Amino acid sequence: MRKRVLTRYLIRAHLGPFLFALSAITGLLFINAVAQRVDSLVGKGLPWQVIVEFLVLSLPHTIALSLPMSVLVAVLYAFSDMAASNEITAMSAGGVRPARMMLPVLGLGVIATLVMLFFNNSVLPESNHALKNLLLDIGRKSPTLELREQVVNELRTGVGVNRYFLTADRIDHDTNELENVAIFDANDPRRQRTTYAASGEMAFNDARTDLYLTLHDGVVHEVQNDRVGGFQRLYFEEQIVPLREVGNELERRFGGADRSDREMGFSLLVTNANERQLQLDTIVSESRSQTEQAVRIALNRPIEADSAVTGEGERRIELSANLRGRYIQRDAMTQQLVAGARARAARGAALQQSVNRFEVEIHKKLAIAIACLVFVLMGPPLALRFPSAGVGFVVVASAVIFFVYYVGLLGGEALADRRVASPAVTMWLGNVVFFLLGIALLRKMGHSSGTSRTGFGEAIAGFFGGSAARAEGES
């Protein structure tokens, strides 16, 4: 009976701080996330239903970050508050061991981990996919938000009457500048124009219905199909290409876009990673076979015949021609093998990068979920190291731990994407470090207690002062 009362009390002590922290942290991160994308919505004349949909779909990504944070805040605050109120001391005096206090909290950590696993596998990928589709649909009302670099972008004008195809090596969406632009116009069957320009800028009219492309230092190639061999080339220093009524309607295309790694659950991520790995293994096998073939060709040098055997001039000429033919054939085969090897190497690098990207996402989803359990393990003993520091300690400690953990996560993701280190190492390094720190603190948990509430600064000074004193005594 007493155990059930203690369990319920510890759970209630954590629920309040957890819900408050989840609301506060989610609100702050959500405002920041929406502020970064507000340009996607301004001046579009979107209905309020679309705005609400955008806000709702932006929320799961924020919760995926704020929920582990809230778990740590709740654990730190609850145990720090109980220690400052001498409740931990009273429990210890009543025969309640620290391990018994940890059991309900660990149970909450397991529940939070399972919730995060389900959330990262089912809710988050679907919301990310729906949000991307929504942003693409909104972007069609303003093509500058949809144009992508180094791909063929389709632009429709006049409510879909005319179509243009645009490519650019670089597109700066902040300054609306383009580099190495190519525009193909085949709307007139008698005149097919392709415009090339070194640079350009994009601008809208006041009603944001017409897009104007100002191109610099370019040339226009015009194929005239109404006469045989008709072709015209025009050079220009500056030319303005107006595109009337571009994307004036919001057209919803639900589920039309392909899924990226952040829009996949665990099953889909594993399937795609395995498919890419099989393709990569096939390319490696082909490369090995082609390399062996190249070596055989290189070693099979045509042997010059003994000129003494062929005394006649015509025979020597015929033999020389045959040798030249064999050399030419060997060089052609070698060049073909080299070109194929380069193509396979480029394809293999792209496949390896895809495999790494999928594996990074798998390990990241798992690591963030397990972080809830790691924070629960580390929080109570850390709070009891500063039993009278108050809310200031909770805020500072949480901020430091969050910063270190997520910076390590982002850095590990970058290293894994670049194939510098294995995703299994970089994504789990933060969890391992904090887990070992939690185990070290748990071993000293029974010696931590507190009787009075003092300032956070005094607690820090006391901690370092005590450490310095112990160091002097040992020396």
Description:
This protein is α+β, with helices and mostly antiparallel strands and 475 residues long. The chain folds into 3 domains: 2-139 and 362-474, no CATH class; 147-243, no CATH class; 261-359. It is 62% helix and 15% strand. It contains 10 helices and 6 strands. It has a 6-stranded antiparallel sheet with strand order 1-2-3-4-5-6, with no helix packed on it. A hairpin with a 2-residue loop joins strand 3 and strand 4 (191-204). Helix 1 packs across helix 2 (48-84) and helix 4 (98-139) crosses helix 6. The longest helix has 73 residues, at 313-385. It is flat, with a radius of gyration of 33 Å.
- Percentage of residues in DSSP E strands: 5-15%
Task: Count all strands and give the number.
Answer: 6
Q: Name the structural class.
A: alpha+beta
* Low-confidence residue ranges: 301-311, 448-475
Widest sheet: strand ordering:
1-2-3-4-5-6
Rounded radius of gyration (Å): 33 Å
- The number of helical runs is 10
End-to-end separation in angstroms reads 50 Å
Major beta sheet, specifics? Answer: 6 strands, antiparallel
